[in-house]
Specification:
The complex is a heterotrimer. Chain A contains eight helices and no strands. By secondary structure, chain A is mostly helical. In chain A, helix 1 runs antiparallel to helix 3 and helix 3 packs parallel to helix 7. The longest helix of chain C has 17 residues. The chains are: A mainly alpha, B mainly alpha, C alpha/beta. At the A-B interface, helix 1, helix 4, helix 5 and helix 7 of A face helix 2, helix 4, helix 5, helix 7 and helix 8 of B.
Chain lengths: 192, 259, 540
């Protein structure tokens, strides 16, 4: 934790707070989709719920950013009264660990689109395994479970990976990230 | 009141422990009894507006029912047996109903446990207790507190941005692409403002001598006293008793490869 | 001889992203108990200097820092991190972002905890600090529920609790309304008498600070020290140079510059000669009815509002924070619907207007211009509504160019709106609201947090717009603006409209203070001259 500057931690936690609210806002959307498609409804947009770990890691680029931001977001969600309660905290940690694992695989060196999409995929895989245990997907038919899994992976790659990157890049253009890793990279590219 | 004065970390760990154990239970009776117990404890040993508890609890009930319903409808056909039960005019295998009810009530049991925590815990005290009891690094803890303070501010910012966008005439997206773009338009000023403020907050904290060092004194010392252990004894004790009784009557069902 | 507390030797500061130094070869020292003002144009690195003095730099700096900074004879970088807070405390500009705790007492204790103050002593010091700023009644209050002025007092208490030798105030009142600002300065004057500390103030507005501060350091745009010496003498002679830096001089001095009097310039209203002072231009006879509010109520915030706006008016809405000014203006501009009553534009209820038709008539400039930005470049920002209006390209590009020019934003077309200066951002938000030639323009505190230069740029722009027939409605706390520009003023008081007439009638009211309002300086001057005695209110 010593390599982290305080401003990086505060910015990460503010991002987590913002996205905790976004996460809560997307729950009803998920519920509507579930109404149409069954439990797979959530999986279609599941990537939303990993996005802060990808954004925080992409902006700050320090070990632990993905894990911590997702954990804090989950904690804030619980505080705001998410339906799943404390278990959500564990889910958040597991999703965060999934995303974190992708960045760890590159030894925290690569932050390109591929890595970010991979982080989304890993978060999806980790969260699915956990969900399988926690929510008892066991009771569902195998084909359906497989479809859920694939939907979640795609959603993780596209929504959290691609959209997370696009949002962070748009943010970098405003100049507010100038003292963070992404902002510095943006400036170097701009200067070049 | 007892629940409010409990050490928040002990309270949180007890609840997480109970939730974890309940996740292994696959019969509906255990969670049902445990819900009753938890709600009882909350109301007896906590002070809060009872009305709000209901506001929070009702959505959970709907969610639990949704869980119950989808589990039946999308259940694993291989596990179905010949026994069926009629429900809402449709025939379902008894075993599925049993499992579905277990899953639905489990959600509700989780909910009642987390509401116990939410309604009787001061969040700042919780974080301070995490620093003092679980040695959470102060840098993270106070960073999170600083971020948490932003919540009300973000709400007003959000409303202002929405009004400001309305003036610009962008609130009526007519295509998917436009809709996505609109999310981004919303997010950018909100996030940019929040990041700038976060940075300033960090500078102000450091100017007050905050270094993140573990050695610090506390204006609100959090301690674990003997009476704090009453809560885990109560909660785990009740879970143990419930399981023992149900085992005796043969209702209990542990996680047993319901996969 | 008093002791030296701060010494800066050949300090040069570079940021990573910039070629030119922010601070360049600074040399100065500050003695115990001195009261120093630091002046400089925006972007001259005054705030960066704060970070150098309290030891935040070079630790948190992305860039390079050369030269030495000594606090109490010891180099700042040789202090262990955190210990500097006992020597140098800073109160920052933004009341919203100086806190990390929820309640007032926890926040004051936070600094003491950082210094490892023992529990019993800490409890005592929290009380003492809150008492010294007069906030003891708010000890257990939530910080988010306090007003801006109260927040700054709490920020000050947090620093005082740590008992630093040097207190740095980095534009502490820039985000406060004039009444809260005056209170804050009064508080400092009292504290300065009670407690011994060295005071360093960075400010853009000099009104009120002059009897507290004796010495001034002026930092040039290029980061060099341009002047170091007595404040009052310098101001009396070189007021014009300081004005050109974008610093807002006291009213008396500004007036003297405008009238091209010769130095020494007056610094206080009391020092002004009894020459004929300009009266406000008589209000133009109002045109036909433009917007009308009848029996408007909104939630529990607004009650029983009846107002009629005419073409060609310049209306100021004033009143205490929370009196319903913003809510009222939003309802009038059709952003919010009233819970009861009607608002009609050109005789037609706003409910019956189509949103995009109404927006061509009524513009609204929000307090934070960033909230209104929706594109990536200045050009696109202005072009946005025209692009969607179905005009020919040649036609709208011409309008965009003209509008940019009018708002003095030409040359910045490709910039990202968020990267503009405060003043440019504000002018851009105005540009987006006049590009469709709106007949009525609402502005929510248009000069809030802006320096003198951007304020006057903006106001002259609005004036030109007004002369061309646009009706302007602005919310403001600044009575000088009301006095100078408004043809009519509305006072909001606890959700009701308590006054609606010309400004001069407002100044004549005996109970102005009860409305949390003060007299504009021109009026104060006038009265000071009338009375031919000590003015009731000394402006500085």
């Amino acid at each position: 934790m010593n390599s982290w500057k305080l401003k990086e931690i505060v910015v990460m936690s503010v991002l987590s707070v913002v996205f905790a609210v976004v996460y809560l806002a997307f729950l009803p959307v998920g519920k509507i989709l579930v109404g149409f498609f069954g439990p797979i409804g959530y999986d279609l947009i599941f990537g939303i719920w990993f996005i802060v770990s990808i954004i925080a890691a992409y902006i700050i680029r320090k070990p632990g950013a993905a894990f911590l931001s997702e954990t804090i977001a989950a904690a804030v969600e619980v505080l705001l009264g998410n339906a799943v309660g404390p278990m959500l905290l564990v889910s958040g940690m597991i999703q965060g660990l999934g995303a974190e694992s992708a960045f760890a695989m590159t030894r925290y060196k690569r932050y390109d689109l591929f890595t970010l999409m991979l982080a989304g995929v890993m978060a999806a895989v980790f969260s699915f395994v956990w969900g399988y245990f926690l929510s008892g997907y066991a009771a569902l038919s195998t084909g359906y479970v497989a479809a859920m899994f694939i939907a979640r992976i795609i959603s993780g790659a596209i929504i959290s990976g691609v959209a997370g990157k696009a949002l962070s890049d748009a943010l970098a253009k405003t100049g507010v990230l100038s003292s963070f890793a992404l902002g510095k990279e943006h400036r170097r590219k701009h200067a070049a | 009141m007892f629940l409010h004065d409990l050490n928040p970390t002990v309270k949180a760990l007890t609840i997480i422990g109970a939730v974890f154990l309940l996740a292994f239970v696959f019969d509906p009776v255990t969670p049902l009894l445990y819900i009753v117990w938890t709600v009882l404890v909350t109301f007896l040993f906590g002070t809060f507006k009872k009305r709000y508890y209901l506001y929070y609890f009702i959505p959970f009930t709907l969610f639990a029912f949704g869980m119950f319903w989808t589990t039946i409808v999308f259940s694993d056909t291989a596990s179905a047996t010949s026994e069926t039960v009629s429900f809402l005019g449709m025939e379902f295998p008894t075993e599925d109903i049993w499992t579905a009810a277990a899953l639905g009530l489990r959600v509700l049991a989780f909910a009642s446990l987390s509401l116990l925590f939410l309604f009787t815990t001061n969040m700042v005290h919780f974080i301070l207790s995490l620093i003092q009891q679980l040695k959470l690094p102060p840098k993270i803890a106070y960073g999170v507190l600083a971020g948490y303070r932003f919540l009300p501010m973000l709400k007003t910012e959000f409303q202002q941005i929405r009004a400001a966008h309305r003036i610009r005439g962008v609130n009526r997206p007519d295509s998917w692409k436009e809709k996505l773009l609109q999310y981004q338009r919303f997010a950018i000023p909100l996030l940019a403002g929040a990041i700038r403020k976060a940075e300033r907050t960090a500078i102000a904290m450091e100017s007050k001598g905050f270094t993140g060092a573990k050695a610090r004194t506390f204006y609100r010392p959090m301690r674990v006293q003997w009476k704090d252990w009453l809560f885990p004894v109560m909660m785990f004790g009740m879970l143990g008793v419930t399981i023992a009784v149900l085992l005796y009557f043969g209702y209990f069902s542990w996680y047993d490869g319901q996969l | 001889m008093s002791q030296e507390v701060i010494r800066v030797e050949d300090l040069t500061l570079h940021y990573e992203e910039r070629q030119k130094p922010v601070l360049s070869h600074l040399n100065f020292s500050i003695d115990e108990g001195e009261n120093v003002l630091i002046l400089g144009p925006s972007g001259s690195g005054k705030s960066s200097l704060t970070h150098c003095l309290n030891g935040l730099y070079p630790r948190e700096l992305d860039g390079s820092m050369k030269g030495e900074v000594y606090v109490k004879g010891r180099r700042t970088d040789s202090y262990p991190a955190g210990e500097m807070a006992q020597n140098v405390g800073v109160v920052f500009q933004d009341p919203e972002t100086q806190f990390c705790m929820i309640t007032v007492e926890d926040e004051v204790a936070f600094g003491l905890e950082n210094l490892n103050t023992p529990y019993e002593l800490m409890v005592e010091k929290v009380d003492t600090a809150l008492r010294s700023v007069g906030m003891e009644a708010y000890k257990t209050a939530n910080i988010s529920e306090l007003s801006g002025g109260q927040k700054q007092k709490v920020a000050l208490a947090c620093i005082l609790a740590m008992e630093p030798e040097v207190l740095i105030l980095d534009e502490p009142t820039a985000n406060l309304d004039p009444v809260a600002r005056k209170e804050f300065i009064q508080l400092l004057k009292r504290l300065k008498k009670e407690l011994a500390f060295t005071l360093v103030v960075i400010e853009h507005k000099l009104e009120g600070w002059l009897d507290l501060l004796e010495r001034v350091l002026i930092i040039h745009e290029d980061g060099e020290l341009a002047y170091d010496g007595p404040l009052h003498d310098h101001l009396k002679t070189y007021a014009l140079d300081i004005h050109e830096m974008g610093i807002q001089l006291p009213y008396a001095t500004r007036r003297a510059l405008e009238q091209e009097w010769t130095p020494p310039y007056p610094l206080h209203i009391g020092e002004m000669p009894a020459v004929a002072f300009p009266e406000n231009p008589p209000a133009k006879s109002a045109g036909k009815v433009l917007l009308k509010a009848e029996d408007v109520h909104w939630k529990s915030i607004l009650r029983n509002i009846h107002i009629t706006f005419h073409e060609g008016e310049w209306v100021a809405i004033v009143g205490e924070n929370g009196s319903g000014k913003s809510s009222l203006s939003r309802i009038l501009a059709g952003i919010q619907s009233p819970s009861k009553g009607t608002v009609s534009l050109h005789g037609r209820s706003l409910k019956k207007w189509k949103e995009n038709e109404m927006r061509k008539e009524v513009g609204y400039v929000f307090q934070n211009p960033e909230h209104q930005f929706i594109t990536d470049t200045v050009y696109e920002e202005v072009a946005f509504s025209l692009r969607h209006a179905g005009m020919k390209e040649a036609e709208w590009t011409k309008i965009v160019e003209e509008t940019l020019k009018f708002c003095r934003l030409d040359g910045l077309e490709e910039q990202h709106p968020f990267l503009l200066s405060q003043g440019q951002k504000r002018r851009l938000s105005v540009a987006t609201m006049i590009v469709e030639d709106q007949q009525m323009l609402f502005l929510d505190e248009p000069t809030f947090g802006q320096d003198e230069k951007s304020t006057s740029d903006l106001m002259s722009l609005l004036k030109e717009k007004h002369e061309n027939g646009t009706t302007i409605v602005m919310i403001t706390h600044d009575m000088e603006l009301v006095d100078k520009y408004a043809t009519r003023v509305l006072v909001m008081n606890e959700g009701e409209l308590s006054f609606d007439d010309q400004p001069k009638e407002l100044w004549a009211l005996p109970d102005l203070v009860d409305h949390h309002l003060e007299l504009p300086p021109r009026e104060q001057w006038k009265r000071a001259v009338w009375k031919r005695e000590e003015p009731a209110y000394v402006s500085s």
